[in-house]
Every structure is written in structure tokens, then in C-alpha cells.
Amino acid sequence: MSKRKNKNPYPDMPKDQFKYVESCLMYYHKNIEKIDEIKVRIIEANRRGASGYIDDNQYLGIRSTNKDSATLHKVLEIDDDVRIERLQTLVSAVGYVLSNLPDTSEEPYHQLIQLRYWENKRRLTMIGIANELSISERTAYRMRKRIIYLIGKELGEW
Hints:
mainly alpha
């Protein structure tokens, strides 16, 4: 009689990657706010035009020409665009996984996320969260691992 080994559908992710992906989930709402802030800053900078940076430079005691200010303006705009692109990638990946997670009484994924990452003012441990959700501690850890694995896979991190 041969023993069949069940293949783990969510293989162990290296700890540093796990923590990174977990932070993407934890800061999901803050990343959405940050995207909006950067967009507003780009719009305001475009309204001011390149000459708006001359005043900023003079305020800081930096002498520059219009050409320097135009270059600085473009560099800052490109840098902001790259940051927006990266943040949007993170937000899209997390949003996609959240929208496709099942949420049943046996496996309340969205409630676990709320308690663990977004509303953990009481500093509940995974045991406390499991008790709160009326699930086993093992189920809570398995759900957490699945969530992080799916986000990591969506991000291309795993």
C-alpha cells in the first residue's frame, strides 16, 4: 500500500517575501490614498508649469535657470509616474485577490483580513482572530497563508 503525499497547494514562501506581500495587503488603503496624493501633486505641478519650481528653488536657496527648473520638473513628474505605476500594480493585485476570495461562514476570508490587517486596534493574535471568527487556529493560519500566497502570485513575487 503506497502512501499518497498531498501536494501543498500553497507552498511555503520565504519569510522576507511573505512579509513584503503581507505589507502590500496591510497598506492597501494607504496605497490608494498615496496614488491620489501623487496624482494631485502632478496636476498641481503641471498647472504651475516648470517656472513654479524656480520659486521652490529660491525658497530653498538654490540658484537655477529656467532650463534647470524645467528639467527638475520633468524628472519629478517621471519619478511620480513610476511611483504611481508601482502603487497601482500593488493595489490592483490586492484588489483582484480580494474580489475573488470566497467568503463563507467556514472560511471568512474578508473578516480575517479586516481583523488582522485593517482594524486590529485590539492587537488580536491569530488565536484571538480565530476565536472571534469561530474557526480553528489552524484554519485561520491556513487562510492567512492562502491570502498572502494568492497576492504574491498575482504580483509575480511567488
